Amino acid sequence: MDRSTPTLSAPMSAAGRRGLYVETEPFASGWLPMGGLHEVYYEECGSRTGQPALVLHGGPGGAINPTMRRFFDPSRWRVVLFDQRGCGRSRPNASLEDNTTWDLVDDIERLRRHLKIEKWAVFGGSWGSTLALAYAIRHPERVSALILRGVFLLTQRELDWFYQDGASMLFPDAWERFIAPIPPAERGDLLKAYHARLTGADRRVQAQAAAAWSQWEGDTLSLRGPQARPAKFNEVDFAIAFARIECHFFVNRGFFPEDGWILKNIKAIRSIPGWVVQGRFDVVTPMESAWTLKKAWPEARFEIIWDAGHASTEPGIVDALVRATDQALTL
To answer: Which positions are catalytic?
Structure first.
């Protein structure tokens, strides 16, 4: 197959699609000090002697969960997952200090060295794809494969689409809920307005803003309708951490030196085997970004899922990602 030509996955019956692998428990876990304020929680799953893979969660500000382990054959992969700075079980919770894209890239390298892994496949969706690409550009010699979903290049155009004007036209009802905590006079720059509330001293205001921020993403995530968050998303601490960290990164444009930095440096990864899976109706990270990446990186396998949005658990997305991790074992 000519890899420059995208594979178009038409809807098929559930019986014709791959599902997630069986649930597994970590065989090792712990906290790794990062040489300053932060300690990062990590876990290893699958086979101790399997091919190494790193899973990067979304957000920024999200956290790992057991479903993320299930995209990999547990008998053949050694899967490493970690909660990024301020997220999940990493400590201290919700901290913005020393918390940038480049701190996270350095954390990945510390974790790799700690686990004595030479090279690993890097798997990430949404913000996880952003971080995976940034890490691979900085450390291409440490990446055996890239498996990406819901590509997010963290450009101004993408941020404006989702947080200022664009997705709002498709979800006007959900948008009204999103902007409700912000007075009309401040709605010309919603990222700035949310950042002020999420980093302010009033916890009640923080909680209100965090709930609205998180709900907007949940309302737009999937073609199957608004997504209920995991139980921990109903906890105020988790919601505040998610919204604070995500807004912190986006107000600072991902801490990239310039807009479009990933595409401008894509030549560094073009020799790395790659898989890109994109939902045709992804509203959170629209297909334009994945398409632009595909044109800059034609060697990567590119698959459009016609009946999917952004969520990693939509059946067509699961099928494509599981097939990709299986194919990566043959490298």
So the answer is: 126, 282, 310
